[in-house]
Amino acid sequence: MSNPPPVNINFAALSDSDIEFMELATGPPADLLLAQCGLSARTTDTPVLVLDNAAGAGIVTKRLHELGINVNGLQVICGDLAPGMVEILRRRIQEKGWDAEAKVIDVLDIPYTSDTFDFILTNFQLQFLPDPALAMKEIGYTDIKIELLEFEVTFAGVKAWMDFTQRTMGAMLVDGVGEKLDSWMKEKYGDGVFSCPGWQALAVTGTAVKL
Fold this sequence. Notes:
It contains six helices and eight strands. Helix content is 36%, strand content 26%.
């Protein structure tokens, strides 16, 4: 069985509607993250500086502003490794009037000291990093422990999966990758209901450094 075709992102083709559709998936965990940090209902006269780490298109920053938290001096730095995504962030910041700045930042090599930010938030990204423990150390955690969880996911069929993938990742499926991926999926799983065993999730815990 061949490997799946490589996926490259055409950032120029990533429209606002594409981003908003993807945020149907990334939005709920972002809300939970902000609630867990106490940022979804925060009132303070003290300025708050947030690093939206591995920001993608900026769902955490978007929800911070949509929640209307009453903070005098909320400021967000949105960091992402991909320059094309940073350009999307800059456009959204300007269009939506967010109190934010977008920069190219490597989540594994953050160019700030540990005491720079009041909150460092990473949403929907740890599972994609080559070294999650290093990412945790970069934001000021020690005694990193990683538990690997395996589970199985069932899909209604390759067509349903591809329809959703085309809708949410259309800008990534360029140069015929969508057709190649569809062919590869059907070769591997057929046309009916299929399950993918061996999916993995990371449970990462650590002890925050006391500054």
